[in-house]
Amino acid sequence: MNLISNAKDATKGQKKREIRLSLKEDGDKIIFSVTDNGKGISDSLKNKIFDPFFTTKGMDHSGLGMSMLYGTIKKHNGAIEIKTKPGIGTTFTIALPK
After folding, report:
1. Which of 34, 46, 82, 85 is the most interior residue, by most CB within 10 Å?
2. Is the CB of residue 90 less than 8 Å from the CB of residue 80?
3. Could you tell me the CA-to-CA distances from 82 to 35, 74, 97 in Å, in that order?
């Protein structure tokens, strides 16, 4: 839910807001992706996304959502990848063992 909520926030102000969810099997893994056509993420912010308490949303947010997501994925022997282009959008891809 955190990825979808972040995608919703990232697409605010777009003429046509797009958030796509994808789920597929790939060998012994399940691959889940969330793609948006939002503002994208700069390289400097991309390197901080999974840090505890990091947020770009202000004091009303804890900055724990993405770090908890990362911890949960790692605890389940999974991986997460970010592909982003500022001004174009972002895709988060999660791979988990079946």
Report:
1. 34
2. no
3. 10, 15, 18
